[in-house]
Amino acid sequence: MQQPADSMERLEQYLQQNRPAPSSDTRRLSDIAYETLQDALRNADVQPGDPLSENRISKALGISRTPVREALQQLAGDGVLQIIPGRAITVATRTVQDVLDALHIRQLIEPELVRLLAERMNEHDTAALLSLTDAMRDAAKRGDRAAWSKADRQWHEILCSACPNQLLGQMVLQSRNRMYSKGAGQHVSEQYLIDGTEEHAEIVDAITAGDGETAARLMADHIAKVRANMFKGSY
């Protein structure tokens, strides 16, 4: 009888199926590895405490071990992984309080981030947000949680990178990264995908209209709904 795949095998399968094409990507290899691993850890149904292998991740990604090691260290800095030098890499344990703390930080500062963006959002970033919102809408229609999660992550990363206050953008991104683990993307309800997409679309509309107060209110409402959905089991 065939044994079910363990967490590392599931992670490898996800990475192989979503393997990046570095030759067509101008980003650093460590950044490519970091972002691909972020998506994998959210969607490959890994569990807190599960051991991971740097060598197997490197082979699955088709990226050498040095940039993979840098990506793993960055994920450890985000609180997603735990690394004991020379001994082990494991998926970090997330408590309910960890998630609540991260959500609290987001509720305090992310509305201010979009309020600032409404004052000076450029056309390139606006077009990227609109494109990713369309990608989320398409993924929601298909019920493709992994694709939706990836587009959602990229959408928020654009907000953070475009923020005129770079420290604020970094703080928001770090808070988001600390919220997700344990295959979070696998537990999102289909209705959440649909509703969440439209919430993102409304925020973009407010930003592009230069209406910072509305954008801030919509973001605060969005984060409140994320919290409600997480703790009623639909996220």
Radius of gyration: 18 Å
Mean pLDDT: 88
Beta-strand percentage range? under 5%
Structural class comes to: mainly alpha
Distance from first to last alpha carbon: 33 Å
Q: What is the count of DSSP helices, taking H or I runs of 4+ residues?
A: 10
Describe the structure.
This protein has 235 residues and is mostly helical. It folds into two domains: 85 residues, Winged helix-like DNA-binding domain superfamily/Winged helix DNA-binding domain (Arc Repressor Mutant, subunit A), CATH 1.10.10; 136 residues, GntR ligand-binding domain-like (Four Helix Bundle (Hemerythrin (Met), subunit A), Up-down Bundle). Helix content is 68%, strand content 4%. A three-stranded antiparallel sheet has the order 1-3-2. The protein is globular. About 2% of the residues have low confidence.
Relevant terms:
Arc Repressor Mutant, subunit A; mainly alpha; Four Helix Bundle (Hemerythrin (Met), subunit A); 68% helix
Give me a quick take on this structure.
68% of the residues lie in helices and 4% in strands. With 235 residues, it is mainly alpha-helical.
Helix and strand layout, with pairings?
Elements: H1 7-17, H2 29-43, E1 51-52, H3 54-61, H4 65-77, E2 81-84, E3 88-91, H5 96-120, H6 123-142, H7 145-162, H8 166-177, H9 190-208, H10 212-230
Antiparallel strand pairs: 1-3, 2-3
